[in-house]
Structure formats: C-alpha cells, structure tokens
Automatic annotation (TrEMBL):
Organism: Magallana gigas (Pacific oyster)
Gene Ontology BP terms: DNA damage response; positive regulation of double-strand break repair; protein localization to site of double-strand break
SMART domains: BRCT
Pfam family, one: RTT107_BRCT_5
InterPro entries: BRCT_dom, BRCT_dom_sf, Slf1, TopBP1_BRCT_8
Name of the featured protein: Ankyrin repeat domain-containing protein 32
An annotated GO cellular component: nucleus
Length: 214
C-alpha cells in the first residue's frame, strides 16, 4: 500500500476530507491558492492559528511556526504551493509525495522538510502521536504564547492540565504530570515545584522534540 493510500485511510479513520491550511504566503498568493483549493472541491480553512481538522498544510516557506510544528505533530502533509497549482492545471488532486517540502529545499530548510516527512511516516505506520501518554501543564506568561504551546501539545496527543500556582499538594502533581513547561519569566513562581523534584522544562523543548527526536 502506498503512503498516499495510507494517508487516505488515516484521514477516513479521523472522519476527514481534504482540508487545507496556508502558511508563509502573501495575501495575493493566499487568495489565488484558496480559490484553486475550493475549485477542486476541497475545504480552505482560513485561520491564523493551526486547526487540527486540516489534512494538508501548504507552506510558502518553512519556519518553526505553530502551523508547521502542529502539522508535523499530527503527521499531516506539509507541501509546497506547486501542489495546488499543478493539481489545478490537471483538474484533479495529484499524488502528494513529489510536493513534500523535502523535494524543494536544502540546508536547514531541507532538514525541516525531512522532519515533516518522518513524522508523517511515523503517524501513518504506528497511528500514534509524538506526545502520546504525556500529561502536562503549561505555565507561561501571556495568553497567546500559552495557547500556542497548549495547541501544539494537544495536537501531539498530550493531555494538558490547568495548574494554579502555588501548588499545595505537590505530591499529587508529581504523580500525575509527566512534565510542567515553565516560561523563563515564570521560573521563580515554579521554584517550589523544581525544588520538589517535579520535571520542569522550558517550553522550547516542545518544538525541539518535534524537530530533533526522529
């Protein structure tokens, strides 16, 4: 069975049709590509943040963005815009493999493209996500940053708990949570957890795990 068929099977198991998110593109490019997506009968998801229902992420460039990391965490297709343009010319959806970013990049960008493909293979083969089994909390100042880290962890299969500081029952937290992600500006607030031996990590570890583990 080809990887395209595996991805189709996975999408069906998740109750998904083709749903496209766009990232790293100018407004004119977004408008043009979105019209082609809809013209081919798929769904264009217009959002500045990642949406778990998407099946394909079209990137104008690769960067350590929320959309890219979440797509990797879910094993989604991460494709070059040529996929949309060439499919529109043919009047049908073409096989995705030739349009993965690993085929359009070199250096650090190629490494990121390879990361996306490796996670796609992993999720297709094992039907497990990178953070499966993790129970975590996020302590980061600023609701926007906290929401981004929470979405990334959730997309990767982690259970995210709300933790209010200071913690009274530290033993319960230690027994429940795998990690507590603590922002640089929140270290002093979480010092009592660190001293108790609870595994507290910088939130940058989440993206590093996606980019470097496989």
């Amino acid at each position: 069975m080809t990887s395209s068929n595996l991805q189709t099977r996975l999408q069906k198991s998740l109750g998904c049709s083709r749903q496209f998110l766009l990232s790293g593109l100018e407004e004119g490019e977004k408008r043009e590509l979105s019209e082609k997506i809809v013209g081919l009968g798929a769904v264009y998801v217009q959002s500045e943040t990642y949406k778990p229902a998407c099946t394909h992420l079209i990137c104008g460039r690769l960067s350590r963005s929320e959309k890219f990391l979440c797509a990797c965490a879910q094993g989604r297709w991460v494709l070059h815009p040529n996929y949309i343009n060439d499919s529109a010319k043919e009047g049908k959806w073409l096989p995705e493999e030739n349009y993965e970013w690993v085929n359009f990049s070199d250096g650090e960008t190629r490494e990121m493209g390879e990361t996306a493909r490796r996670w796609r293979f992993h999720v297709e083969a094992f039907l497990t996500l990178p953070f499966s089994g993790w129970k975590v909390a996020v302590i980061v100042r600023g609701s926007r940053k906290s929401s981004i880290y929470t979405r990334l962890l959730s997309c990767g299969g982690a259970e995210v708990y709300k933790l209010t500081l200071p913690v009274g029952n530290k033993s319960r937290v230690a027994n429940l949570l795998t990690y507590v992600f603590v922002g640089e500006r929140n270290v002093s607030e979480a010092q009592h957890l660190i001293e108790f031996g609870i595994m507290c990590l910088r939130p940058e570890f989440i993206g590093d795990y996606i980019l470097k583990v496989l």
